What does this fold into?
Amino acid sequence: MDKSNNFYYPLFVKGDIDGFIGLFIDNLINLLIITGLCLSLGMPAPLIFGTILPATALSVLAGNIFYSFQARKLALKEKRRDVTALPYGINTVSLFAFFLLIIAPVYVQTKDAHLAWKVGVISCFISGIFEGLGAFIGDKIRRISPRAALLSTLAGIAIVFIALEHTIKIWDKPVIAFIPLALILIEYFSRVKLPFRIPAGFYAIFIGSVIAWTTGTMDKNALIESAKSISFNFPGFAFWDIFSGVGSGKILPYLSISIPMGIMSFFGTLQNIESASAAGDTYPVAPALAMNGVGTIIGSLFGSPFPTTVYIGHPGWKGLGARSGYSIINGAVVTVICFSGLMDLISATIPMEAGYPILLWIGVVITAQAFQTTPKKHAPAVALGLMPAISAWGLNLLRQYINREGKYTTAQLNKIIGESLPHLKGILTFSEGALLSAMFLTAVSVYLIERDFLRSFYWTIPLIVFSYIGFIHSSEVGFGMAGKIPLGYSLFALIILLVHLYNKYTTERANNEQ
It folds into this structure.
């Protein structure tokens, strides 16, 4: 326990167990995705299990330790025992972006898995630098951004990519998942404690696993094979080896991906810090943003091409009763798994459906927070902010269905969707860059509700600029890649500005007449 002026902040509490289970499942899913993608590309197993995963674990561990320390420091300062650490782990969005837009294209062109890995790692390092730069401007952006703009973006991601994405899988295997679902909802919705005061997360995982194994759902052979893969792999400092043989010509084409992803991660972390503040834990912005970038850089120095970031979900973990201990446990367990090769064994032992109800709870709490902690009259703006993420999820499903055999490029997929579903053609532009467009559109709406037309106009400027350079409403970064969208936003902004001028004129005229 930490002690300061007779105040005690426990190292661990019971809620840390549930918090760990939820955060760990999220990280485990990402680790499984990394493994599957890299193996599908033909990367050698020693590179995946001996370098990439251990290096990724180091970045996760570093961030979890820091954010746990930051929570303890805040608890001692404010003398509160309910302070919850910011959740931290592998950046899911960047994971797919770096693999599909950097690593895979390099491999397709060169058939050199090691070169593709190196280019990915260097790009990850560059992205980490831009993540960290947010520490110098993050607090100012947070002060000028309406809370609804920051929280509605997270709510959109939470309700579809965290909650709905996993909730629909619960209904696919109801025999396994419905008892864990009932346990989670009973404890977290009604606040009723289960027998022996054992956390619902433990009950869910244990009972779900027992049902899965007794009903023959799990694969015994897969369990045996995974047990054979256990071996200790400690990551080595690989930075100099990574840079050898990789000229700038191989890196420059991918700066348009690594830099925007770093900037988007910075915005995402800023939104998560605001989410934590709305839940009662107000952290200093600069250290949190700096560590976000440092964690990614640490991973890249040891060979990880996948960025890490502050996770969405702080209110959910706080609602579970997690404090700072869950962060330490998560970092330690992820490290042990990646260093020892236990990941395959765990995934072969525990059905993921037993843990999905926790992710459902997290998504619901975050979405509810966006409405509950912002002014009631801003609710329409929050609702608007949900739409880009929902659209992005829908587009992702369409692309997965059409490209289930993996034979189309993004451009080809967009053409097929546009021709086959012309009434949904707008989804191709509306859903791209959802993290940023949701924030800007919500801010515009908030100030329209407040009848502050000038500030609303100011928030249309990033919509124009970011769409013109392809950060939003385009699948590719580059000047003019979003077509006529910037022009449309310019006309949109002009109307708001004209209304501001007209409103100002009529107000001054009315005052003069008085």
Summary: The chain has two domains: 2-374, 390-509. Strands lie at 2-4, 7-9, 88-90, 308-310. The first helix runs from residue 15 to 41.
